[in-house]
Each structure stands twice: as structure tokens, then as C-alpha cells.
Amino acid sequence: MGAIRQCSRSACRNSAVATLTYVYADSTAVLGPLATYAEPHCYDLCEQHAGSLTVPRGWEVLRLALPATPAGPGPDDLLALAHAVREAAARPAAATDPGQGQRAAHPALEAPAAGEGTRRGHLRVLREPS
Description:
With 130 residues, the protein is an alpha+beta fold. It has a domain at 1-68. The protein has helices at 47-51, 75-90; strands spanning 18-23, 28-33, 42-45, 60-63, 117-120, 123-126. The strands form two sheets. Strands 3-1-2-4 form a four-stranded mixed sheet. The longest helix has 16 residues, at 75-90. It is elongated, with a radius of gyration of 23 Å.
């Protein structure tokens, strides 16, 4: 799933809008739109850090056009979210004793008593308490 990526700069909590890649053989830094996937040798930067980028003396910066507005969630993102929900629902829920050092399952996640709610597929409809 395409989670929102944060800026790679330390102590920056802003959302990334651009990806920085270094081409060492050409002494060039390439700053372009946010890459589809996080790559280990690339740096995701927020708008502020992308705008104030400086490179070592003798290097060039190749700035590719950044989109004016960030892309919203697409159909692939929504499908990934649906698959993640199905996967989480398929895992067996094990309620544990709080005294054993593990947290007990949340009461809203436990199976409803007979007549308390209905279940369709992986979703469950619960009635509000009267």
C-alpha cells in the first residue's frame, strides 16, 4: 500500500513531494516528482527542503517539473487498502489475559453475541447500545 512518505531530512515531519537522486559519475543531483516506490538510494523531500536544496561545489542540479498539486489516492491505493482490511480480518483474533503482559483484544473487535449484529463477508454491522 502506498503510505504517505515523510521527508528524509532528520527532524522533518512534512509529507514528501519530491525525490532526490544522485548520479555520482556525472556529479549531478536529480530532483523530480515523488517516486512511486521508496528506493534505498533515493531521498524523499518535502516542498521546503526540495526548494532549498544545495549541492557540493562543482555539481549540477537537474530539476524536473514537480506537479502543482499532489496526486490523490488512485484505484491501486484503494485496492491495496481493501486487501489490507481483508488480510487483517482473516487473521485469528486471540484474546489474551492482560496479566500475561499482553493487551487484551478490544471489546468492539470481539464476535457479537447472538442477535447483536449481522456479519457479511469480512465486515460486521453492530447495533448501537440502547
